[in-house]
């Protein structure tokens, strides 16, 4: 099939938004005689005037050929999808060889490494808006699936029969809700019907991929809309049933307030997301308050710290790990620490420690950042927050005249907040 092509005069893609290293990778592949295009989210974002988060490249070159071209810069990864990661410092440009997929099958995809043509490569992608190629040297957009029109009209349409496509890979159901939340697009009627028909299959999807999409959305600046959609379309009750029920209560509504707050942070600092343990804590903190109210305050007692830690663990178990046993331990451990530490900042007894040792804990800044979110939620806490912040700054400030070697540069992992806490929420 011949694709539709759109010339530079048909679109207003701002080439300055395209990463230089991605352009270099495409050029290098081209110069070696291969086809290479920008594809997927970056083309969609360029067309809708958003700054792309990442630049995926699709090529006719096989992984070994890519490796030979980029040598030590290139790491071949993945079992399910074999991909090349080309590294430029901390940045990674993902390069995938054109693949074909059995798009008519209803079976769950377990293996997806058959090489194909550029057209086949588009056909195995999820939605038409994600199926466009862009050739940065000629500025031509190549469209095999009607993605150009759908992007213009703001419609999410599946490439191929949505019933089959959702069954093959149920994570696509989460992805369609993600694009509605982020882009404000509407889904086509056949996608909406298929979503209703297939939603229970979401439990068959790979837990790590599912969780990655959910956590990525919590960093996107559109988590409020996303969670509302997950709930409205009956997906949240399948993946996090207890959280779903809690969100329906009056106290549960506070979670949505926290989501709005983190969305504000991320819209202001899109490149420096809050640590994921803080994001998870936003889902849990109101439930912990509720539990402490029900189990202690309402009965006329106040829990001691051990009981608070126990209650935090309980809330994490009920709302998250009970239904989602693959949840990373690092996140639940840190969330438990962050949650229980809130009761040190604002003890239920109202008393404050004279020389609190807990501020020396290496993860203390995470707990303090969450406290700042609480203060945004409830401004009467601002003064207390400021005093803890000052206390912490004084403790960490080096003594005058002391000689300190320059700090070693360390690469921040994607799970760490790279933004200074005071900058992140201003
Ligand atoms: P984001 O802006 O969140 O990165 P994206 O669409 O670029 O959104 P990626 O996960 O980066 O999402 O995937 C890149 C491209 O790979 C997509 O645009 C789409 O073409 C294809 N893709 C991703 N996930 C799937 C899937 N589950 N099924 C089919 N194609 C997919
Ligand atoms: Mg992407």
Describe this protein's structure.
By secondary structure, the chain is of the alpha+beta class. The chain has 2 domains: 1-154, 2-Layer Sandwich (Beta Polymerase, domain 2), CATH 3.30.460.10; 234-395, cca-adding enzyme, domain 2 (Orthogonal Bundle), CATH 1.10.3090. 48% of the residues lie in helices and 9% in strands. It has 19 helices and 10 strands. The chain has helices at residues 20-31, 41-47, 63-70, 118-123, 147-153, 162-168, 171-183, 189-198, 207-218, 223-232, 236-239, 241-247, 253-268, 276-295, 305-321, 329-345, 364-377, 382-396, 421-424, and strands spanning 4-6, 36-39, 56-59, 74-77, 83-88, 91-97, 132-135, 140-143, 155-156, 186-187. An 8-stranded mixed sheet has the order 1-8-7-2-3-6-5-4. Strand 4 and strand 5 form a beta hairpin. Helix 13 runs antiparallel to helix 14 (276-295) and helix 15 packs antiparallel against helix 16 (329-345). The longest helix has 20 residues, at 276-295. The termini are far apart. Mean pLDDT is 90; it is low at 401-424. Adenosine-5'-triphosphate binds at residues 40-41, 53-54, 56, 125-126, 130, 169, 171-172, 175. Keywords: ATP-binding, mRNA processing, Nucleotide-binding, Nucleotidyltransferase, RNA-binding, Transcription, Transferase. Residues 184-243 form the tRNA nucleotidyltransferase/poly(A) polymerase RNA and SrmB- binding domain. It catalyses: RNA(n) + ATP = RNA(n)-3'-adenine ribonucleotide + diphosphate. Belongs to the tRNA nucleotidyltransferase/poly(A) polymerase family. Residues 392-410 have a biased composition (Basic residues).
């Amino acid at each position: 099939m011949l694709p539709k092509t759109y010339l530079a005069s048909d679109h207003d893609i701002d080439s300055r938004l395209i990463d230089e290293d991605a352009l270099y990778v495409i050029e290098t592949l081209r110069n070696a005689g291969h086809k290479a295009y920008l594809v997927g989210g970056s083309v969609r974002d360029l067309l809708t005037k958003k700054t792309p988060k990442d630049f995926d490249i699709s090529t006719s070159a096989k992984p070994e050929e890519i490796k030979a071209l980029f040598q030590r810069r290139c790491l071949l990864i993945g079992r399910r999808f074999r991909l090349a990661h080309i590294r430029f410092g901390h940045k990674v440009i993902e390069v995938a060889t054109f693949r074909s997929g059995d798009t008519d099958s209803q079976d769950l995809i377990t293996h997806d490494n058959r090489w194909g043509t550029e057209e086949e490569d588009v056909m195995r992608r999820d939605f038409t808006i994600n199926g466009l190629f862009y050739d940065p040297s000629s500025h031509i957009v190549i469209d095999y699936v009607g993605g150009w029109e759908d992007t213009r009209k703001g419609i999410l349409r599946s490439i191929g029969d949505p019933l089959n496509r959702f069954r093959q890979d149920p994570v696509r159901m989460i992805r369609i809700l993600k694009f509605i939340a982020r882009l404000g697009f509407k889904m086509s009627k056949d996608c909406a019907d298929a979503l209703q028909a297939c939603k229970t299959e979401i439990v068959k999807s790979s837990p790590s991929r599912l969780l990655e999409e959910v956590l990525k959305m919590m960093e996107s600046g559109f988590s409020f809309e996303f969670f509302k959609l997950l709930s409205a379309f009956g997906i949240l009750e399948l993946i996090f049933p207890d959280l779903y029920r809690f969100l329906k209560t009056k106290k549960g509504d506070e979670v949505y307030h926290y989501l709005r707050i983190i969305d504000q942070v991320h819209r202001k600092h899109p490149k420096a997301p809050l640590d994921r343990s803080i994001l998870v804590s936003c889902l849990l903190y109101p439930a912990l308050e509720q539990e402490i109210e029900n189990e202690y305050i309402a009965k006329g007692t106040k829990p001691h710290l051990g009981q608070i830690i126990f209650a935090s663990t309980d809330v994490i178990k009920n709302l998250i790990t009970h239904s989602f046993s693959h949840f990373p331990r690092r996140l639940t451990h840190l969330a438990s620490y962050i949650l229980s530490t809130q009761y040190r900042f604002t003890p239920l007894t109202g008393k404050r420690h004279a020389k609190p040792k807990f501020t020396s804990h290496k993860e203390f800044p995470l707990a303090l950042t969450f406290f700042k979110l609480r203060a945004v939620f409830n401004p009467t806490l601002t003064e207390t927050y400021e005093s803890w912040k000052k206390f912490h700054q004084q403790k960490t400030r080096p003594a005058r005249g002391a000689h300190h070697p320059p700090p070693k540069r360390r690469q921040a992992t994607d799970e760490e907040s790279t933004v200074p806490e005071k900058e992140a929420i201003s």
